[in-house]
Model the fold of this input.
Amino acid sequence: MAFWDRLKSGLTKTRDAIKQGIDPVLVQLDPTRPDWDQASLEPLEEALLSADVGVESVDELLEGVRRARPRDRAELETMLVDAVAKETGGGAPTRFQSPDGVKPWVVLLVGVNGAGKTTLAGKLAAREAARGKSVLLVAADTFRAAAGEQLEIWAERAGAELLRQKAGADPAAVAHDGLEAARARSIDVVIIDTAGRLHTRTNLMEELAKVRRVIARLVPGAPHETLLVLDATLGQNGVAQARQFHDALGVTGVALTKLDGTARGGVVLAVKKELGLPIRLIGVGESLEDVDDFEPQAFAEALVRG
Done:
């Protein structure tokens, strides 16, 4: 099954919830009315909020429906698809890949425990290796049991090199050694996997900021991407996480994992609207190919129409 077909399947719970909000609206649909009151759109409002679209985005979507006054399901769904695509970025997707002329291209992965950082690191390594790039995975998660072993398995699957140190080592020192090794070996891409940390723990966030400073000192302009990995099943809780990480680290983009099977797929809109951060990647499974660049139009179609 192609990636976007898997995404459509994975968003079934979210899409069904939205359709349940559309159906009652269609029953009372009357394009001749000069305006639609709030009560007439409440089922759709509740459905969008339950999908964690976010209050501000929901208000804008509903206002668009009021102005457009669609005549039937097709028009209403088309209006929602267009609005969601615009809200989440619009235009053509940008490829998340190492640019020509930047060597090493450094990607720092951050996020809370269980978001899927290590898995994403392996998938990104495989994508870059498939493009003919040499890749070094750096295991800067020195606290989680077996984190290094897990990344080693991904490195083997992806055809990437790995740098890891003993458990409990200073993450900033590991990142330093990784970048030194990358420069010595003329590596194209460095992907740094960090330990999950609660966004409310100031000391742990400061440790992550230290890792970022060390990277910046060694490679001018690095990290070129500070990618926040969010578990889509957390919905609005993920938005709160993103805000804290962004404030502390200057996140450049978001990777949303576990979109398959969640009823909260609307969180994509909330992250983009409330934080202004681009959604760079989405993931739907554990296989190497289960990650892709975020495409606003394709995502909107999968979310609303399937």
